[in-house]
Amino acid sequence: MKAYVKAGIKGFSGKLDGAIYYYHPRLKRTLMRRAPKLSIQPQNIELRDPK
């Protein structure tokens, strides 16, 4: 998902360059946080490999 400007809201919303941007209505600001790094789980390998 790419970051985009919401209609009527002055801010970005979405993922871009390893960060997540979102609009906080109470603060009336766009905030950014680091995207989580997910570890590899055994379930991921089972879903990836076709049977």
Gyration radius from CA atoms, angstroms: 16 Å
Query: Judging from the principal axes of the Cα atoms, what is the shape?
Result: elongated
Low-confidence stretches: none
Distance between the termini: 29 Å
Number of distinct beta strands: 4
Strand content: 35-45%
Rounded average pLDDT: 77
| Helix-residue proportion | 10-25%
Number of helices: 1
Order of helices and strands: EEEEH
The count of domains is 1
Class from helix and strand fractions: mainly beta
Going across the major beta sheet, what is the strand order?
Answer: 1-2-3-4
Q: How would you characterize the largest beta sheet?
A: 4 strands, antiparallel
Please explain how this structure is put together.
This protein is mainly beta and 51 residues long. It has one domain. It has 1 helix and 4 strands; from the N terminus they run ββββα. The longest helix has 7 residues. The mean pLDDT is 77.
Describe the structure concisely for a colleague.
With 51 residues, the protein is mostly beta strands. The protein has 1 helix and 4 strands, in the order E-E-E-E-H. It has one helix spanning 42-48; strands spanning 4-5, 12-16, 19-24, 29-34.
